[in-house]
Amino acid sequence: MIIRQETENDFSQIYDLVKTAFQTAHVSSGDEQNFVNRLRGSGNYIPELALVAEENGNLIGHIMLTDIYVVNGDNKYKALLLAPISVVLEQRNKRVGSKLINESFRLAKELNYASVFLVGDPAYYNRFGFQPSINFGIKNTQGFPDQYVMACELIPNALQGISGGITFLT
């Protein structure tokens, strides 16, 4: 398996991969594949942090980290949104998702990002250092239950002194 940056030639395969992966997810809006396209067109897209896992020429996983902001009045703190992460059903529980997350975090640190946010299952994401963003004084503005809106500091204490709200592109 190799992990590499997505290319424009991958976009249709990624669309299908994300759609298929979320058909068997515990929680899904059914629109995750279109969410990927909206993120690419949002101006928050970071090509270096949109990765695929490939095995024998087939895409088996995808992850995307895009710019997001914690806003408190006139203050804006730049961070990353991890959304979505997708792994084909046949490759789940084989650490494909973990490898994608770890590689994206490594690259994010090289690009001087200090924190990552997501909406997801605490039982899975705690192992990567995520905890509820409310623990840092950061609330989501869209009414997601607090326990599912999570933050991870890529650099220790990166969120110390940061507070405000985050809005996720929908």
What does this structure look like?
The chain is of the alpha+beta class and 170 residues long. The protein has helices at 11-23, 32-40, 96-110, 122-125, and strands at 2-5, 50-55, 58-72, 75-87, 115-119, 131-132, 138-140, 149-153, 164-166. Strands 1, 2, 3, 4, 5, 6, 7, 8 and 9 form a nine-stranded mixed beta sheet that branches. Strand 3 and strand 4 (75-87) form a beta hairpin.
Short recap of the structure:
Helix content is 24%, strand content 33%.
Helix content: 10-25%
Mean pLDDT: 93
Count of distinct structural domains: 1
Task: Estimate the global geometry from the Cα principal axes.
Answer: globular
Tag the structure with descriptive keywords.
4 helices, 170 residues, 9-stranded mixed sheet, Aminopeptidase, 24% helix, 9 strands, alpha+beta
